[in-house]
Amino acid sequence: MAISFKGAHFPKEVILMGVRWYVAYPLSTRHVEELMEERGVDVDHSTINRWTIKYSPLLEEAFHRRKRSVWVSWRMDETFYGAAVVKPFFSRCAGFFSFSCHAHCPPDPHSIRLGTQV
User: Fold this and answer.
1) How far apart are CA 76 and CA 18, in angstroms?
2) Which residues of 10-37 are buried (b: 16+ CB within 10 A; e: fewer)?
3) Where are the beta strands (DSSP E) in 1-118?
4) Domain ranges, ordered by start, for the chain
């Protein structure tokens, strides 16, 4: 089922752009009105509100039909974030922020073994 823009006073692209900005970003209809005005489209905020009420359910239905289905099998990436990964990160800050970080960062366990502690 295609979305019908029959009887609309504005082109399809303008309507879709206004609805997309309102739905996708945290903008009010007045902000969308200003954005459209900057691009040369004179439209009222109440018109954008009517477009959103009329076309957003139709767009959601169209997007939902085209959405890829999720299969039964889910695989997790085998990445482990443990304490061993966090320690070297904090110990590296001693070299970069050497003026204030020595007192706050623990020494690198690898540098102690090698005898190159900062």
Assistant:
1) 38
2) beeebbbbbbebbeeeeeebeebbebbe
3) none
4) 12-66, 83-114
Sequence-distant (≥ 6) Cβ neighbours of residue 88 within 8 angstroms: 108, 110
Whole-angstrom distance, CA of residue 24 vs CA of residue 45: 16
**Closest C-alpha to 96, from 113, 79, 118, 111:** 118
74, two tokens: 């889910």
Question: Does pLDDT of 83 surpass 50?
Answer: yes
pTM above 0.85, yes or no: no
CB neighbour list of residue 15: distance below 8 Å, 6 or more residues apart: 5, 8, 51, 55
pLDDT in tens, 29-61: 999 999 999 999 999 999 999 999 999 999 888
Give the three-state DSSP class for 78: coil
